[in-house]
Amino acid sequence: MNRHIEEIVLQSTGATAMTSRQLIQTLWSGYGEIVKVGLAGSEWATAVLKYIVLPEQSDHPRGWNSDRSHARKVRSYEVEMHWYRHWSRHCDATCRVPACYAASSDAHEDVIVLEDLDAAGFSLRMSDLDKRQVKACLNWLAAFHATFLGVVPEGLWPTGTYWHLATRPDELAAMSDTALQEAAPRIDKLLSDCPYQTLVHGDAKVANFCFSSDGRRVAAVDFQYVGGGCGMKDVAYLLGSGLDEQACERWQCELLDHYFNALKDALMRKGRVEIAFDDLEACWRALYGVAWADFHRFLQGWAPTHTKINGYSERLVADVLRQLQLS
Protein backbone atom coordinates (compact mmCIF):
# COMPACT_ATOMS: atom_id res chain seq x y z
CA MET A 1 0.00 0.00 0.00
CA ASN A 2 1.65 3.21 -1.13
CA ARG A 3 1.73 6.46 0.82
CA HIS A 4 -0.85 8.12 -1.45
CA ILE A 5 -3.46 5.46 -0.64
CA GLU A 6 -2.61 5.60 3.05
CA GLU A 7 -3.20 9.36 3.03
CA ILE A 8 -6.62 8.89 1.42
CA VAL A 9 -7.58 6.39 4.14
CA LEU A 10 -6.33 8.60 6.98
CA GLN A 11 -7.89 11.80 5.68
CA SER A 12 -11.29 10.24 4.89
CA THR A 13 -11.62 8.48 8.27
CA GLY A 14 -9.95 11.09 10.46
CA ALA A 15 -7.48 8.46 11.65
CA THR A 16 -3.98 9.29 12.81
CA ALA A 17 -2.50 5.97 11.73
CA MET A 18 -3.30 2.61 10.14
CA THR A 19 -2.57 -0.15 12.65
CA SER A 20 -3.18 -3.30 10.61
CA ARG A 21 -3.90 -4.62 7.15
CA GLN A 22 -5.82 -7.82 6.40
CA LEU A 23 -6.45 -9.11 2.88
CA ILE A 24 -10.12 -9.97 2.34
CA GLN A 25 -9.85 -11.00 -1.31
CA THR A 26 -8.16 -10.23 -4.58
CA LEU A 27 -10.32 -8.81 -7.35
CA TRP A 28 -11.42 -10.79 -10.40
CA SER A 29 -8.66 -11.35 -12.96
CA GLY A 30 -6.01 -9.62 -10.84
CA TYR A 31 -7.42 -6.08 -10.98
CA GLY A 32 -6.64 -5.23 -7.37
CA GLU A 33 -7.65 -6.27 -3.90
CA ILE A 34 -9.98 -5.64 -0.98
CA VAL A 35 -8.40 -5.19 2.44
CA LYS A 36 -9.56 -4.42 5.96
CA VAL A 37 -7.44 -1.83 7.73
CA GLY A 38 -7.22 -1.04 11.43
CA LEU A 39 -7.42 2.62 12.40
CA ALA A 40 -6.07 4.63 15.31
CA GLY A 41 -7.54 7.97 16.32
CA SER A 42 -10.74 7.55 14.26
CA GLU A 43 -14.35 7.14 15.34
CA TRP A 44 -14.17 3.86 13.41
CA ALA A 45 -11.82 1.09 14.52
CA THR A 46 -11.67 -0.41 11.04
CA ALA A 47 -12.47 0.38 7.42
CA VAL A 48 -12.51 -1.59 4.19
CA LEU A 49 -10.41 -0.48 1.26
CA LYS A 50 -11.17 -1.53 -2.33
CA TYR A 51 -8.07 -0.85 -4.37
CA ILE A 52 -8.27 -1.15 -8.16
CA VAL A 53 -5.15 -1.07 -10.28
CA LEU A 54 -5.26 -2.08 -13.93
CA PRO A 55 -2.87 -4.96 -14.66
CA GLU A 56 -0.57 -4.97 -17.66
CA GLN A 57 -2.10 -8.32 -18.60
CA SER A 58 -5.28 -9.75 -17.12
CA ASP A 59 -5.60 -13.39 -16.11
CA HIS A 60 -9.21 -14.47 -16.47
CA PRO A 61 -9.83 -17.76 -14.62
CA ARG A 62 -11.86 -19.13 -17.53
CA GLY A 63 -9.65 -17.76 -20.28
CA TRP A 64 -11.91 -14.89 -21.41
CA ASN A 65 -9.08 -12.40 -21.93
CA SER A 66 -9.77 -9.76 -24.58
CA ASP A 67 -9.79 -6.02 -25.12
CA ARG A 68 -13.57 -6.10 -24.80
CA SER A 69 -13.34 -7.94 -21.48
CA HIS A 70 -10.77 -5.44 -20.19
CA ALA A 71 -12.86 -2.44 -21.28
CA ARG A 72 -15.92 -3.92 -19.57
CA LYS A 73 -14.04 -4.32 -16.28
CA VAL A 74 -12.63 -0.79 -16.49
CA ARG A 75 -16.11 0.59 -17.06
CA SER A 76 -17.47 -1.50 -14.16
CA TYR A 77 -15.07 0.17 -11.73
CA GLU A 78 -15.98 3.60 -13.08
CA VAL A 79 -19.63 2.73 -12.48
CA GLU A 80 -18.92 1.58 -8.93
CA MET A 81 -17.06 4.80 -8.15
CA HIS A 82 -20.02 6.79 -9.47
CA TRP A 83 -22.45 4.65 -7.48
CA TYR A 84 -20.69 5.36 -4.20
CA ARG A 85 -20.19 9.04 -4.96
CA HIS A 86 -23.71 9.86 -6.12
CA TRP A 87 -26.23 7.07 -5.59
CA SER A 88 -25.50 4.96 -2.49
CA ARG A 89 -26.66 7.72 -0.12
CA HIS A 90 -30.25 7.03 -1.23
CA CYS A 91 -30.18 3.54 0.31
CA ASP A 92 -31.65 3.38 3.81
CA ALA A 93 -31.62 0.66 6.47
CA THR A 94 -34.01 -1.51 4.45
CA CYS A 95 -31.48 -1.84 1.61
CA ARG A 96 -28.31 -1.37 3.63
CA VAL A 97 -25.03 -0.68 1.85
CA PRO A 98 -21.68 0.35 3.35
CA ALA A 99 -21.13 4.04 3.94
CA CYS A 100 -18.53 5.49 1.61
CA TYR A 101 -15.78 7.53 3.26
CA ALA A 102 -13.86 8.26 0.05
CA ALA A 103 -13.86 7.41 -3.65
CA SER A 104 -10.72 8.63 -5.36
CA SER A 105 -9.44 7.92 -8.86
CA ASP A 106 -6.58 8.91 -11.11
CA ALA A 107 -5.01 7.53 -14.28
CA HIS A 108 -3.36 4.63 -12.47
CA GLU A 109 -5.60 3.50 -9.64
CA ASP A 110 -9.02 3.74 -8.04
CA VAL A 111 -9.50 3.69 -4.28
CA ILE A 112 -12.81 3.30 -2.44
CA VAL A 113 -12.78 3.54 1.36
CA LEU A 114 -15.87 1.95 2.89
CA GLU A 115 -17.53 1.24 6.19
CA ASP A 116 -16.62 -2.14 7.68
CA LEU A 117 -19.92 -4.04 7.57
CA ASP A 118 -18.59 -6.64 10.03
CA ALA A 119 -18.30 -3.91 12.66
CA ALA A 120 -21.76 -2.63 11.69
CA GLY A 121 -23.37 -5.95 12.62
CA PHE A 122 -23.26 -7.81 9.31
CA SER A 123 -20.44 -10.24 10.03
CA LEU A 124 -21.81 -13.49 8.56
CA ARG A 125 -21.11 -14.72 5.02
CA MET A 126 -23.00 -17.58 3.38
CA SER A 127 -22.43 -19.87 0.42
CA ASP A 128 -25.77 -21.68 0.46
CA LEU A 129 -29.02 -20.32 1.81
CA ASP A 130 -31.96 -21.65 3.75
CA LYS A 131 -35.42 -20.25 3.12
CA ARG A 132 -35.24 -17.60 5.84
CA GLN A 133 -31.92 -16.32 4.53
CA VAL A 134 -33.22 -16.16 0.96
CA LYS A 135 -36.17 -14.14 2.18
CA ALA A 136 -33.81 -11.72 3.94
CA CYS A 137 -32.01 -11.14 0.62
CA LEU A 138 -35.32 -10.77 -1.20
CA ASN A 139 -36.37 -8.16 1.35
CA TRP A 140 -33.20 -6.21 0.51
CA LEU A 141 -33.83 -6.51 -3.24
CA ALA A 142 -37.46 -5.44 -2.86
CA ALA A 143 -36.45 -2.34 -0.88
CA PHE A 144 -33.67 -1.54 -3.36
CA HIS A 145 -35.96 -1.89 -6.38
CA ALA A 146 -38.65 0.21 -4.70
CA THR A 147 -36.13 2.93 -3.85
CA PHE A 148 -35.02 3.34 -7.45
CA LEU A 149 -38.17 2.47 -9.38
CA GLY A 150 -38.47 4.72 -12.42
CA VAL A 151 -35.11 6.51 -12.09
CA VAL A 152 -32.77 7.20 -15.00
CA PRO A 153 -29.47 5.37 -14.32
CA GLU A 154 -27.27 8.38 -14.93
CA GLY A 155 -23.58 7.51 -14.69
CA LEU A 156 -24.38 3.82 -14.16
CA TRP A 157 -24.84 1.03 -16.71
CA PRO A 158 -27.82 1.92 -18.95
CA THR A 159 -28.72 -1.76 -18.62
CA GLY A 160 -27.42 -3.39 -15.46
CA THR A 161 -26.07 -6.93 -14.83
CA TYR A 162 -22.70 -8.27 -15.85
CA TRP A 163 -24.25 -10.65 -18.39
CA HIS A 164 -26.17 -8.05 -20.42
CA LEU A 165 -26.40 -9.21 -24.04
CA ALA A 166 -24.90 -6.10 -25.63
CA THR A 167 -21.73 -6.49 -23.54
CA ARG A 168 -21.33 -10.23 -24.18
CA PRO A 169 -21.09 -10.89 -27.95
CA ASP A 170 -18.18 -13.30 -27.55
CA GLU A 171 -20.12 -15.52 -25.17
CA LEU A 172 -23.16 -15.36 -27.45
CA ALA A 173 -21.08 -16.51 -30.41
CA ALA A 174 -19.69 -19.43 -28.37
CA MET A 175 -23.12 -20.91 -27.58
CA SER A 176 -24.02 -24.39 -28.79
CA ASP A 177 -27.75 -23.97 -28.06
CA THR A 178 -28.75 -22.35 -31.34
CA ALA A 179 -32.42 -21.97 -30.38
CA LEU A 180 -31.56 -19.91 -27.31
CA GLN A 181 -28.83 -18.10 -29.23
CA GLU A 182 -31.31 -16.97 -31.88
CA ALA A 183 -33.90 -16.01 -29.26
CA ALA A 184 -31.43 -13.96 -27.18
CA PRO A 185 -32.29 -10.56 -28.76
CA ARG A 186 -36.01 -11.14 -28.22
CA ILE A 187 -35.42 -12.17 -24.61
CA ASP A 188 -33.36 -9.05 -24.04
CA LYS A 189 -36.06 -6.89 -25.66
CA LEU A 190 -38.80 -8.34 -23.46
CA LEU A 191 -36.85 -7.30 -20.39
CA SER A 192 -35.91 -3.85 -21.67
CA ASP A 193 -39.42 -3.10 -22.99
CA CYS A 194 -41.06 -3.71 -19.62
CA PRO A 195 -42.61 -0.36 -18.62
CA TYR A 196 -41.48 -0.78 -15.02
CA GLN A 197 -37.75 -0.24 -14.84
CA THR A 198 -35.64 0.27 -11.74
CA LEU A 199 -32.01 -0.05 -10.74
CA VAL A 200 -30.79 -3.61 -10.47
CA HIS A 201 -27.81 -4.55 -8.33
CA GLY A 202 -26.50 -6.50 -11.29
CA ASP A 203 -24.54 -9.15 -9.36
CA ALA A 204 -26.93 -10.10 -6.56
CA LYS A 205 -25.28 -13.41 -5.71
CA VAL A 206 -25.01 -14.86 -2.21
CA ALA A 207 -21.35 -13.83 -1.89
CA ASN A 208 -22.31 -10.15 -2.21
CA PHE A 209 -24.64 -10.21 0.79
CA CYS A 210 -23.45 -9.76 4.36
CA PHE A 211 -25.74 -11.20 7.05
CA SER A 212 -26.53 -10.16 10.60
CA SER A 213 -25.73 -12.71 13.30
CA ASP A 214 -29.34 -13.93 13.41
CA GLY A 215 -29.55 -14.14 9.58
CA ARG A 216 -32.59 -11.88 9.45
CA ARG A 217 -30.99 -8.76 7.97
CA VAL A 218 -28.53 -8.24 5.15
CA ALA A 219 -26.38 -5.56 3.59
CA ALA A 220 -25.02 -5.71 0.06
CA VAL A 221 -21.67 -4.93 -1.55
CA ASP A 222 -20.08 -4.91 -5.02
CA PHE A 223 -21.86 -2.40 -7.25
CA GLN A 224 -19.77 -2.76 -10.39
CA TYR A 225 -22.76 -3.74 -12.53
CA VAL A 226 -25.55 -1.64 -11.06
CA GLY A 227 -27.79 -0.11 -13.70
CA GLY A 228 -31.23 0.04 -15.23
CA GLY A 229 -33.45 -3.00 -15.63
CA CYS A 230 -36.32 -5.21 -14.56
CA GLY A 231 -36.12 -6.33 -10.94
CA MET A 232 -36.60 -9.97 -11.91
CA LYS A 233 -33.01 -10.05 -13.16
CA ASP A 234 -31.76 -9.71 -9.58
CA VAL A 235 -34.37 -12.09 -8.17
CA ALA A 236 -33.69 -14.89 -10.65
CA TYR A 237 -29.93 -14.54 -10.27
CA LEU A 238 -30.13 -14.57 -6.47
CA LEU A 239 -32.19 -17.76 -6.39
CA GLY A 240 -29.86 -19.48 -8.82
CA SER A 241 -26.80 -18.50 -6.79
CA GLY A 242 -28.04 -19.57 -3.37
CA LEU A 243 -30.31 -22.58 -3.97
CA ASP A 244 -29.92 -25.92 -5.68
CA GLU A 245 -32.37 -26.91 -8.39
CA GLN A 246 -34.60 -28.89 -6.03
CA ALA A 247 -34.99 -25.93 -3.67
CA CYS A 248 -35.66 -23.59 -6.61
CA GLU A 249 -38.39 -25.90 -7.85
CA ARG A 250 -39.89 -26.43 -4.42
CA TRP A 251 -39.81 -22.84 -3.17
CA GLN A 252 -40.23 -20.79 -6.35
CA CYS A 253 -43.85 -19.78 -5.83
CA GLU A 254 -43.43 -19.05 -2.12
CA LEU A 255 -40.30 -16.97 -2.66
CA LEU A 256 -41.78 -14.96 -5.52
CA ASP A 257 -44.87 -14.29 -3.37
CA HIS A 258 -42.58 -13.14 -0.57
CA TYR A 259 -40.64 -10.81 -2.86
CA PHE A 260 -43.75 -9.15 -4.27
CA ASN A 261 -45.28 -8.72 -0.81
CA ALA A 262 -42.03 -7.10 0.31
CA LEU A 263 -41.97 -4.90 -2.81
CA LYS A 264 -45.55 -3.75 -2.21
CA ASP A 265 -44.74 -2.92 1.42
CA ALA A 266 -41.59 -1.02 0.40
CA LEU A 267 -43.47 1.06 -2.16
CA MET A 268 -46.15 1.87 0.40
CA ARG A 269 -43.52 2.96 2.94
CA LYS A 270 -42.07 5.29 0.33
CA GLY A 271 -45.47 6.74 -0.55
CA ARG A 272 -45.30 5.60 -4.16
CA VAL A 273 -49.08 5.60 -4.51
CA GLU A 274 -48.83 6.50 -8.21
CA ILE A 275 -47.47 3.03 -9.00
CA ALA A 276 -50.13 0.61 -10.31
CA PHE A 277 -48.75 -2.25 -8.24
CA ASP A 278 -51.00 -5.01 -9.60
CA ASP A 279 -49.87 -4.15 -13.11
CA LEU A 280 -46.21 -4.00 -12.06
CA GLU A 281 -46.48 -7.38 -10.35
CA ALA A 282 -48.17 -9.00 -13.35
CA CYS A 283 -45.50 -7.60 -15.65
CA TRP A 284 -42.54 -8.70 -13.52
CA ARG A 285 -43.96 -12.12 -12.62
CA ALA A 286 -44.33 -12.88 -16.32
CA LEU A 287 -40.66 -11.98 -16.78
CA TYR A 288 -39.20 -14.24 -14.07
CA GLY A 289 -38.53 -17.09 -16.49
CA VAL A 290 -37.39 -14.61 -19.14
CA ALA A 291 -34.84 -13.12 -16.74
CA TRP A 292 -33.67 -16.63 -15.87
CA ALA A 293 -33.30 -17.48 -19.57
CA ASP A 294 -31.31 -14.27 -20.08
CA PHE A 295 -28.69 -15.36 -17.54
CA HIS A 296 -28.78 -18.96 -18.78
CA ARG A 297 -27.91 -17.63 -22.25
CA PHE A 298 -24.77 -15.99 -20.90
CA LEU A 299 -23.79 -19.03 -18.85
CA GLN A 300 -24.28 -21.41 -21.76
CA GLY A 301 -21.71 -19.49 -23.79
CA TRP A 302 -19.35 -18.56 -20.96
CA ALA A 303 -19.14 -21.86 -19.06
CA PRO A 304 -21.36 -24.54 -20.64
CA THR A 305 -20.41 -27.17 -18.03
CA HIS A 306 -21.28 -24.90 -15.09
CA THR A 307 -23.28 -26.54 -12.29
CA LYS A 308 -25.91 -23.79 -12.53
CA ILE A 309 -26.98 -25.26 -15.86
CA ASN A 310 -29.38 -27.79 -14.39
CA GLY A 311 -32.78 -29.32 -15.01
CA TYR A 312 -34.73 -26.51 -13.33
CA SER A 313 -32.95 -23.88 -15.39
CA GLU A 314 -33.38 -25.78 -18.64
CA ARG A 315 -37.12 -26.24 -17.98
CA LEU A 316 -37.60 -22.52 -17.46
CA VAL A 317 -35.67 -21.75 -20.64
CA ALA A 318 -37.69 -24.31 -22.62
CA ASP A 319 -40.92 -22.68 -21.41
CA VAL A 320 -39.69 -19.25 -22.52
CA LEU A 321 -38.68 -20.52 -25.96
CA ARG A 322 -42.10 -22.14 -26.40
CA GLN A 323 -43.82 -18.88 -25.46
CA LEU A 324 -41.69 -17.00 -27.98
CA GLN A 325 -42.61 -19.49 -30.73
CA LEU A 326 -46.30 -19.09 -29.93
CA SER A 327 -46.04 -15.31 -30.05
Question: Helices and strands, in N-to-C order?
Answer: HEEEHEEHHHEEEEHHHHH
Just give the CATH class of the largest domain. Answer: Alpha Beta
* Number of helical segments with 4 or more residues: 10
Shape type? globular
Our measurement of the CA-to-CA distance between the termini, rounded to an integer number of angstroms, reads: 57 Å
Query: Unreliable segments (pLDDT under 50, ≥5 consecutive)?
Result: 60-64
The biggest beta sheet is recorded as:
5 strands, antiparallel
Number of domains: 2
The neighbouring-strand order within the major sheet is 1-2-3-5-4
SSE blueprint:
Blueprint: H1 3-13, E1 17-26, E2 32-40, E3 46-53, H2 67-87, E4 100-105, E5 109-114, H3 131-147, H4 169-173, H5 178-193, E6 198-200, E7 209-211, E8 218-220, E9 227-229, H6 232-242, H7 245-269, H8 277-286, H9 288-302, H10 311-326
Antiparallel strand pairs: 1-2, 2-3, 3-5, 4-5, 6-9, 7-8
Helix pairs in contact: 3-6, 3-7, 5-9, 6-9, 9-10
Description:
The protein is α+β, with helices and mostly antiparallel strands and 327 residues long. It folds into two domains: 3-114, Phosphorylase Kinase, domain 1 (2-Layer Sandwich); 131-326, Alpha-Beta Complex (Aminoglycoside 3'-phosphotransferase, Chain: A, domain 2). Helix content is 45%, strand content 16%. It is built from ten helices and nine strands. It has helices at 3-13, 67-87, 131-147, 169-173, 178-193, 232-242, 245-269, 277-286, 288-302, 311-326, and strands spanning 17-26, 32-40, 46-53, 100-105, 109-114, 198-200, 209-211, 218-220, 227-229. The strands form three sheets. It has a five-stranded antiparallel β-sheet, sandwiched between helices. A two-stranded antiparallel ribbon has the order 6-9. A two-stranded antiparallel sheet has the order 7-8. A hairpin with a 3-residue loop joins strand 4 (100-105) and strand 5. Helix 3 runs antiparallel to helix 6. It is globular and about 65 Å long. Residues 60-64 have low confidence and may be disordered.
